[in-house]
Amino acid sequence: MPAPDPAPDPVPVPDAVDPLLAQERAHLGASRSALRAMREDAESLDIRDVTANWVNAAVLESQIEERVKSLADLAHTPLFFGRLDYLHRVGGAAPESDSADRDAGDGDGKDEGDRFYIGRRHVHDAHGDPMVIDWRAPASQPFYGASKQNPQDVALRRRFGYTAGDLTAYEDEHLSDPAEAVRSSKLLQAEIERPRVGPMRDIVATIQPEQDEIVRSDLGGTVCVQGGPGTGKTAVGLHRIAYLLYAHRERLARTGTLVVGPNASFLHYIEQVLPALGELQVKQATVDSLVAGAVEVRGTDAAPAAVIKGDARMAEVLRRAVRSHVTLPAEPVVVVRGSRRWRVPVYELEEIVQQLLARDMRYGAAREALPQRIAHAVLVRMEEAGEAPDDRVQNAVARDAAVKAVVKAVWPPVDPSKLVLRLLSDPEFLAAHADGLLSADEQKTILWTKPARGVKSAKWSPADAVLIDEASDLVARTHSLGHVVLDEAQDLSPMQYRAVGRRCSTGSATVLGDLAQGTTPWATDSWPEALRHLGKGDAVIEELTAGFRVPREVIAYASRLLPVISPGLAEVASVRESPGSLSVREVPGAGPESGSGHLDTAVIAACVESLAHEGSTGLIAADARIPHLAEALTAAGLPYLSPGEETTATARLTLVPASLAKGLEYDYVVLDEPAAVVDGEPDERTGLRRLYVALTRAVSGLIILHSAPLPKALGA
């Protein structure tokens, strides 16, 4: 397919020269006024006479407060970014209401179809007529999907350009006009390349058709998105949850939504995206925080132990250990009711216990059912004797001391933390339940060398907390949410997938990741396998291969690593060609004999060079080099931030450990000593994957500085 013709540059012009620009600015001003009126209406609501009690009043006040927050007008966030003029009226949707403005729109007076301004949220005027249509509404979908080949009844698609919140330019496509050639959008390209300052922003104005298809996929199914660096998979996941909240608000308000990210820095980076789209109720967590609470995590595991603890076989080990607490009854139970004694023999008690075991219920639920089953057996005998007991009698029998004693002996309570403590401390207990699952060497690897005295004194690791979470679910079912977005999913262990999957067992998920960026020893190499552990084996797997963030030269250089780190994975095809965006510089005289002084000097100079450009700069280095580079930056008088901290006018440089670079992006990146990044990991493959991540964080330019030889996989 031939490349589209470049569109003429959308040059801002004075209002007097272009009355259409003045008209669009007027609509923007009127829309802001309408939004302000909507907010004032919400703030003025008086609920004193419409609530029956203080509980209802508190709930309603909270809802109104959230409504007021969602109506905030962010000065530097445009209310609308596009416009659609349809050839005909759109069924079921109200048109933009100002007919005089409609007739003036294109100067021909013949526009009889609907017109919609597309924005981040809905705005209506005093009469309830829409002035801005939410980007998630069905009438907005053609803004993303319509084309010259399939105009979807769109006569005109107009994109708007903004500078500091002011509307300064526009660009038109007449999709239904066969005489107009296909052209690429300069405004779209400029928005994609706009400097990255502050936290992650939404991509609602630049969503591509293949991304929009994923965003609008149905709530009922789970979607897995494999996407290389710069393909927008994280943004797609966040916009998908925003879309689902729009399309299924009542249902998800009841069941809840959650975004799971790799670390706190990443969550801080993305936390403003959903509020900018008007969604304030989505919770965020890491996997570690998701399973926290039962114990305090104070320890770490060596990689071999962490890999085994994260293996799916541990789920069966735990299941066996939990069920081992059940013992068959050895004596009959005798219940005294008044002058009568009712006896349930041992064989019948055994049948009840075996039936409950066969149902494979949660341990705690079965334990609660056991006294009722025994009580039912007693009631059968009462009825056979001519009595007519009711439910109250059955409940009373279930609470009888004799029945309680049987339940305590046969089906005792299980504390998940104590269970895992015993598994990791008692070789015989572990061997009994890992038989045929874990080898003797594997069992020895996960056993603590110095067993803890108790739950509180144990130095639990993150992998241990996941085991406790699994055991807790075996005892009592974990609450399930309506939808979960799981980002950087390739780094999770099978047991971590299970932990997340429990949180959406009755809901759906959006799974985001890149197999080439797996940087944990337990990282998955197969999405079908990962989805099976998540409990979503029927998920649809989509692949994004068009890159919009990383320049073509940079991604091509980083992709040299793919044959080694992820054979067979498709290379990202960047749509952005940026000559000069990649610079690989060897620093002479910086070897082991002379120390790192020359390299430090070169790194500082490269940071200064990058900061001369507009936007953010990230200095990425091996974790072990971070303290040294921090001292060098301080000595050079260069202020710097930590990952997740927002850039300011005086601090646009972030010092980033390679282990925390995943998911972040900067306009310019200085990468310090690639070999050190690789050497900082337990094996070469993981190290090269870590390097792949570091190489692909730049939006506009990447400077690589090295004194040691570059990894052979880079072909340099």
From TrEMBL:
One Gene Ontology MF term: ATP binding
Keyword set, alphabetical order: ATP-binding, Helicase, Hydrolase, Nucleotide-binding
Annotated region (Disordered), positions in chain: 93-115
Designated name of the protein: AAA family ATPase
Alphabetized Gene3D superfamilies for the sequence: P-loop containing nucleotide triphosphate hydrolases
Pfam families found in the cross-reference section: UvrD-helicase
Species name: Streptomyces paludis
Binding site for ATP: 227-234
Annotated Basic and acidic residues bias: 99-115
The keyword Transferase belongs to this UniProt entry's keyword annotation: no
PROSITE patterns: UVRD_HELICASE_ATP_BIND
Span of domain UvrD-like helicase ATP-binding: 206-560
Single Gene Ontology BP annotation: recombinational repair
The UniProt record lists the keyword ATP-binding: yes
Classification via InterPro entries: DNA_helicase_UvrD/REP, P-loop_NTPase, UvrD-like_ATP-bd
Any one Gene Ontology cellular component term annotated for this protein: cytosol
Family annotation (SUPFAM superfamilies): P-loop containing nucleoside triphosphate hydrolases
